[in-house]
Amino acid sequence: MNAVRLEILGPFELIRGGRSVAVPAGAQRLLALLAVRGEGIHRRAAAEQLWPECTPLRASANLRSALCQSRKIGPKTVVVSEGHRLALSPCISVDHREACGSARRLLERDDGATPATPVGLDRLVEDLGRPLLPGWGDEWLILDRERWDQMRLYALESLAQHFLALGRFLAAHQAALAATAVDPYRETAHRIAIEVHAAEGNVACAVKHYLDYRRLLQQELRVSPSQRMAELIRELTSA
Questions:
Q1: What is the distance between the alpha carbons of residues 100 and 37, in angstroms, rounded to a whole number?
Q2: How far apart are CA 88 and CA 70, in angstroms?
Q3: How far apart are the C-alpha atoms of 122 and 228, rounded to whole Å?
Q4: Dihedral sign (CA 135, 140, 144, 146)
Q5: So what's the pLDDT on residue 35?
Q6: pLDDT of the residue at 39
Q7: Is the pLDDT of residue 124 over 70?
């Protein structure tokens, strides 16, 4: 049987046998919710979260319609129902779940080792750089987006430091920049990017990155980089 994969990092896409499958809007929202709620969710809670602006009766009707749409997607069952609880079928792989699992394993290790091959880590950086369902304005996504952004920030910074220690400067720089794209004000990733430039001997690039970051903070927040970052630049320019 053809493998089924759901991608919600970036635009929504359901893939079966290597080909994209058309999914109606209502079914898209239901599948996305179930993909994020890996443990499943009660029917009433699903209806309330997906259609908060509707009456309970209308929301329940919308949920039944979305379930009907999901049954027409293909030969495989994509939504399983046990009593009043709904869940995504275990036969469907989800990019968000896989990336979260890899990031969690990376962050929970305390022996300095990494849980994947170099190719796997490069792919993880790519996945961590993707936002969760960009353009979707659903209220239920707000907290899940925040959780995803926090996890990928810490994971990307950890990967950047790992690559830097190995002398993989391009990979380290890309991971650090991916983290700055998630949160342009967070200093940690900018500091790692500066350290990468310094390790390569590109002092001018390090100073430019610092000045650009300082300008951003002053223009947007009226604050300055930390003393730690300023000292790092002084050490580079005084050498």
A1: 13
A2: 11
A3: 29
A4: positive
A5: 96
A6: 87
A7: yes
| 48-52: long-range pairs with CB below 8 Å, 24+ | 49/138, 49/139, 49/140, 50/138, 50/140, 52/139, 52/140
Q: How many CA atoms lie within 13 A of 165 on its CB side?
A: 9
Residue 35 CA to residue 88 CA, distance in Å, equals 6
In one letter, which amino acid is 95? D
Sign of CA dihedral 119, 120, 123, 124: negative
Distance of alpha carbon 173 from alpha carbon 33, whole angstroms: 33
Amino acid at 34: L
Distance (Å, whole) CA 189 – CA 177:
7
- Residue 198 is encoded by which pair of tokens? 């310094």
Beta carbons of 84 and 44 less than 8 angstroms apart: yes
CATH number of 4-90: 1.10.10.10
Rounded Cα distance between 157 and 155, Å, is 5
The model's confidence at residue 116, banded by pLDDT at 50, 70 and 90, is low
Q: Mean pLDDT over residues 28-38, rounded?
A: 95
What is the tens place of the pLDDT at every residue in 177-220?
999 999 999 999 999 999 999 999 999 999 999 999 999 999 99
- Domain spans of the chain? 4-90, 95-166, 184-239
Q: Are 89 and 76 in contact (CB under 8 A)?
A: yes
Q: What is the pTM of this model?
A: 0.91
